[in-house]
Write a structure and sequence with these properties.
Shape: rod-shaped
Structural class: alpha/beta
Strand order of the largest sheet: 3-4-2-5-1-6-7-8
Order of helices and strands: HHEHEEEEHEHEHEHHHHHHHHHHHHHH
Helix content: 55-70%
Number of strands: 8
């Protein structure tokens, strides 16, 4: 727990900051958050209850351990020209020196220095250590710091690795001071030149001028261990150590430490909010393109439905035309046949019926069958073309997304855009994998349908459905015959029974009186029967057409359904997370303003 007693206002700030960071933890649960980010946030929350944490960083052999020893006034930590610090060392107050392993790579050591009752000092492995785990330990520990002291050596100041590490510190929003160590290796004029070089580079990297102290840790330690006062004072003045020691032990008073203690976890939270808000917004941009593609496909399907319905009505007119032509032939036949001059011919009903079949019915059933088959072939061809069009659209969409994903910074923070690292969620992450896999599966499904589409089988299946529907509507029992044979059966049963109408012998006796009436009745009967046939045929065809069109559209929609569900679910989730992160960002900004008012 914090050993410094907080007043009521500070305690409320601490409580509000914890709640905001805990809200951030919950919000990030919707992401595949990087392990280091999770750890950084968890440690930042714990950090609010810990002592003020002063983290010493820099390249190995820059004099980090020597700097801490100078503060302690004793060569307590090992020093050397090789990487001597292989672990994180946390210096805490203790009546006696002791060592305790806290976690992998982290060693807690105690020392009886009074200032360690308020401050923990952390000694880290070098940022350019040969052993990569040592450098990783250093980078993982920086987010936990309240103040970072960046130690650079006068004989190789601000190296490339130090520059890169300084940028990482900047991203975490840490308070940082720079210590130029080993100035005893340089002349005074050279020290000033190096100091100017460091200040210029620090300003360019951080965007502000941090405090820079020039020291000789080696001379400072010798001063504190000198036996004579004269030697002690002389060495102390030359070491220039007084300024940085005063800053750490006195300038950083209780209020300053509390402010930094509250501010640094805030910086971690703000950085994570910024990174994952950018990630959420980047993903929403991707999903917006996906939604647009889905909406375009849906619009194409609706347009396809409308066009097909319009074309179907137009094509059905060809079927109706065949029946109309038969009706016209029938009217002409009745006018020609049902008259007094042919009264004796009318007695022979079999002859009249055969003549009616030859002149009126003629090829009508098979003409209708050809028109219906042509319509079926058209429907099957249109169905295949729609699958092809959908496949081509998906291929273009996938190619376009692949090109866009190849561009830098698509879902990255500014850090990732500079090529310094990627936040999870870019290409290869679960989100991108699921999105790409589902999109690919839709494309494969469409491609498989196109490649295996059997037009003849589809046409046969649809033709059978039409035959069954027409036969069922007309109550005609037929086996596996064509539509033409079914229509022949229908016409024989419904249109050709004129023997009763012609009434043989009676017609011969009273022909002058009843022939005109019989002719009118025959015409009316023919019109009614053909109208019944037309309605049955149109209704059966329309029903089967609607069913087949609906089935085709349903198959297409089912093919893209998993992708559609993923996109809509992810959009809903990300929109919620975006709103939560926006709210958390506003809360953290309010907390920061209140901390600055302390």
């Amino acid at each position: 727990m914090l050993r410094t007693i907080l007043d009521r206002k500070q305690s409320q700030l601490l409580k509000d900051e914890k709640e905001a960071l805990e809200d951030l933890q919950l919000a990030l649960a919707g992401f595949e958050v990087r392990t280091e980010d999770q750890k950084a946030l968890q440690k930042s929350l714990r950090q609010l209850d810990d002592l003020f944490l002063l983290v010493i960083v820099g390249e190995f052999n820059s004099g980090k351990s020597a700097f801490i020893n100078a503060l302690l006034g004793e060569r307590f930590l090992p020093e050397g020209v090789t990487p001597t610090t292989a672990q994180i060392h946390i210096l805490d107050y203790g009546q006696a020196s002791d060592r305790e392993v806290q976690e992998e790579g982290v060693l807690k050591v105690t020392y009886p220095a009074d200032f360690l009752q308020e401050i923990n000092i952390v000694d880290t492995p070098g940022t350019n250590a040969i052993i990569r785990r040592h450098e990783q330990l250093t980078q993982e520990f920086v987010p936990r710091s309240d103040l970072v002291i960046f130690v650079t050596s006068a004989d190789r100041p601000f190296t490339e690795s130090e520059r890169a590490f300084m940028e990482r510190i900047r991203e975490w929003g840490k308070k940082v001071i720079i210590v130029l160590n080993k100035i005893d290796l340089l002349e005074d004029q050279e020290v000033e030149q190096v100091l100017s070089f460091i200040e210029q580079n620090a300003l360019a990297l951080l965007g502000f001028m941090p405090e820079v102290f020039t020291v000789s840790s080696r001379l400072a330690l010798r001063s504190k261990q000198a036996e004579s006062r004269r030697e002690r004072n002389a060495l102390w003045d030359v070491s220039r150590f007084a300024a940085v020691e005063t800053y750490i032990l006195k300038t950083l008073d209780e209020k300053s430490r509390i402010r930094l203690k509250l501010t640094n976890p805030l910086g971690v939270g703000e950085r994570l909010v910024a990174d994952y808000l950018a990630l959420a917004q980047g993903r929403l941009e991707l999903l917006a393109e996906d939604l647009k593609a889905i909406e375009n496909i849906e619009a194409q399907l609706e347009l396809y439905r409308t066009d097909m319905e319009n074309d179907f009505r137009y094509r059905m007119a060809d079927v109706e035309k065949v029946l109309l032509e038969m009706e016209n032939r029938g009217m002409e036949y009745f006018d020609e046949t049902l008259r007094v001059a042919r009264v004796f011919d009318l007695v022979n009903t079999q002859r009249i019926q055969a003549e009616f079949e030859r002149k009126v019915v003629a090829e009508t059933p098979y003409d209708i069958e050809r028109e219906v088959q042509s319509l079926i072939d058209w429907l099957v061809e249109k169905d295949l073309r729609q699958w092809q069009a959908t496949l081509e659209y998906l291929d273009r969409h996938r190619a376009r997304l692949a090109e866009e994903e190849a561009l830098p910074g698509r879902e990255a923070s500014s850090r990732a855009q500079r090529g310094e690292g990627k936040i999870i969620g870019q290409v290869g992450g679960p989100f991108e994998y699921n999105r790409r896999a589902l999109l690919d599966s839709v494309g494969r499904a469409a491609k498989e349908v196109v490649l295996t589409y059997d037009r003849e089988a589809e046409a046969r299946k649809l033709a059978q459905s039409v035959r069954d529907a027409v036969a069922g509507a007309a109550l005609v029992e037929v086996s596996a015959v064509g539509l033409g044979a079914i229509l022949v059966a229908i016409l024989h049963g419904a249109l050709l029974d004129f023997t009763g109408v012609l009434a043989g012998g009676a017609l011969a006796v009273v022909g002058l009186l009843i022939i005109p009436a019989k002719r009118r009745r025959a015409k009316n009967d023919l019109r009614e029967k053909l109208e019944d046939l037309r309605q049955n045929l149109m209704e059966s065809m329309s029903t089967e057409f609607d069913r087949e069109l609906g089935r085709s559209l349903q198959r297409l929609r089912e093919a893209i359904a998993p992708y559609t569900r993923f996109v809509r679910a992810e959009q809903q989730k990300l929109t919620r997370i975006e709103a939560e992160l926006d709210q958390i960002r506003a809360t953290l900004a309010q907390v920061r303003a209140r901390i600055e008012d302390l």
